Amino acid sequence: MASARRICISKKGVGAGLRLSTVLTLVGAVLVLFGCWMPWREAVPTFQQPVYHGGEHTNKVALTVNVDWGEEFVLRMLEILQKENVRVTFFVTGRWAAQFPELVRQMADAGHEIGNHGYGHPHPDQLSVSLNQRDIQRAERVIQEITGRRTELYAPPYGERGPAVLTAAENAGYRTILWSVDTLDWKLRDADAITARVVNRAHPGAIVLMHPLAATAEALPTIIKELKRDGYDLITVSQLLAAGKDDAP
Fold first, then answer.
1. Quick one: average pLDDT of 1-13?
2. How many angstroms separate the Cα of 201 from the Cα of each of 134, 156, 181, 195, 239?
3. What b/e string do you get for 112-148 counting C-beta neighbours within 10 Å, with b at 16 or more?
């Protein structure tokens, strides 16, 4: 009896061991499949890097103006640009465009390029992909309703360019535009200092960042004159991108 009992216990132990082995095998297979699946599920989306400047083998420079305020100086800048026969790229927010549609029409009618600066000027790096995309597309609808044209270039507020920002812009069909020459006009508020920063830092393919300020409007005629004297053609961002492929930082 004792011997038979030992045999029975032994058989039970073998059966339990087989069942445990089977379970572990199944768990292992699930983990393998899960491990293969997760990298695809959690992969960081690919996106185009932002554009900081155009081709380095060109004599062209693009002036840009980011607009979310300063409407009192936008008209003065438009008058100067018209007189100097220069076209620039205005990146306007949707909320500003909705408030000052006539100024946006004047920009477009004068041949300037209109870019997208988001709708409400949030900090894009603090938003998700979906919220960034919603902000971009909301501005797009406002600007398109005013001008009849869809915007294709996006200048993120504050120059923020995290993965969520770049992914949202690409999902919405935009190129993200930054700059290689920053006037720091919002900080300097001095026409001579603003002019010096642009003229001393200008380079082939440069994208120059400005804002509608009194000092910037005052500096603009001299900036244009000095850049032209140095042999630069002043064009829009889209024209700059079409002129060359060198858009890396």
1. 46
2. 35, 22, 6, 10, 21
3. bbbbbbbbebbebbebebeebbbbbbbbbebbeebbe
